[in-house]
Specification:
There is one protein chain. This protein is mainly α and 140 residues long. It is 69% helix and 9% strand. It has seven helices and two strands. The chain has helices spanning 2-8, 13-23, 32-44, 64-72, 74-90, 97-116, 120-139; strands spanning 48-54, 57-62. The chain has a two-stranded antiparallel sheet. β1 and β2 form a beta hairpin. α2 crosses α3. The longest helix is centred in the C-terminal third of the chain and has 20 residues, at 97-116. The radius of gyration is 18 Å and the shape is flat.
């Protein structure tokens, strides 16, 4: 699946997680503990190459070795895509698109602000804002 997603476009680990979650409309998102070791393993095997690296954040692209491997495992990829699609169909009774978009915007804003500076007070202030939003949602 990772090879397939990086064939579409280069991705960070977070992008791999979100792409799989998008394929299932939120029914499944692999954990970082699964995705990041997989990316590292595929990089060591030569299936992925790092395009850019900023600290621990790496942008991965499919290598020619990975492309050959992916082409040879089409049946496995089709089966995996089929399972993800089944999850999507089984778990999508509501259209939560606007909420999903808002959450993705929040995640992007958080990533931009928190990566830009290492400020504990900023992190505490942001956490308080999010906690306030949670309390308001729970009262709806």
């Amino acid at each position: 699946m990772v090879l397939h997603l990086t064939k579409e476009k280069p991705r960070h680990g977070y992008g791999v997680i979100r792409s799989i979650e998008d394929l299932t409309r939120g029914a499944y998102a692999p954990s970082p503990g699964l995705v990041y070791p997989t990316l590292a393993s595929l990089e060591r095997a030569g299936d992925l190459e790092v395009l850019t690296s900023r600290g621990a954040r790496r942008l991965y692209a499919l290598s020619s070795v990975g492309r050959t491997r992916l082409d040879g495992e089409k049946a496995k990829l089709d089966a995996a895509l089929g399972r993800l699609d089944s999850l999507r169909r089984a778990n999508s009774p509501l259209d939560c698109g606007p909420v999903r978009r808002a959450v993705q915007s929040l995640e992007s804003a958080l990533e931009d602000r928190l990566l830009a500076q290492d400020d504990k007070q900023l992190a505490l202030d942001i956490a308080e804002l999010i906690d306030d939003a949670v309390r308001k949602i729970e009262r709806l």
